[in-house]
TrEMBL record:
A Pfam family annotated for this UniProt entry: Mob1_phocein
Protein name as annotated: MOB kinase activator 2-like
Stored SUPFAM superfamilies: Mob1/phocein
Gene3D superfamilies on file: MOB kinase activator (1.20.140.30)
Binding site residues for Zn(2+): C72, C77, H152, H157
UniProt KW Zinc keyword: yes
Signal peptide: none
Record keywords, A-Z: Metal-binding, Zinc
Keyword Transmembrane helix listed: no
InterPro entries according to UniProt: MOB_kinase_act_fam (IPR005301), MOB_kinase_act_sf (IPR036703)
Amino acid sequence: IHWIMDSRVLIQLEEERPYLQQQNACQRITSANMFALTSLPPGMDRAEWLASNTVAFFKHVNLFSSALSEFCTPSTCPTACGPGNVVYFWTDDHGRKLKCSAPLYFDYAMSYIQELLTDEDVFPTKAGAAFPNGFIFLVQKVFLLLFRTLAHIYWSHYSEVLVLGLHPHLNTLFCHLMLFCQQHSLLEPEDTKPLQDLITALEQHK
């Protein structure tokens, strides 16, 4: 009886979250060793490694998000939400939490990240320039916003991802990002909880 109930729950969950279905979760665009890609290279400064990867992940997530922008509108996505309909609030410069549409939230997020990445005082590009105190906390915030962007895509736009045949790309990007965050302690368990079932499913299909 317990097995039957568990099976029904699993079937219901996979219908609600098609990204958990085995034929989707197993799709990747590469079999590269992700651990080697995310580990700090010997002799390299950790801040430099975090900075270069932050820039790269931002470009990849922003590009993926842009490919789906026509499907993410104020009418289709009146709130910025993730799996389980968790709602993401944008915090403005005055510390006020704003409930806004998904496209507006992620426009705020990408603009915020872009501004950080082009600020020489935060992400210095000159050789020998020092990274600011608290740099790691800014990197953590960037990866939280990138995670939320992908969480929204999985939750609200996965049907479009499937139609476009982009699910192997999405899985690969998400796996790469999550492994990098795990190795460098960039996200808290509470942050990733909405997609923990996907993280578990993807680990089973390495």
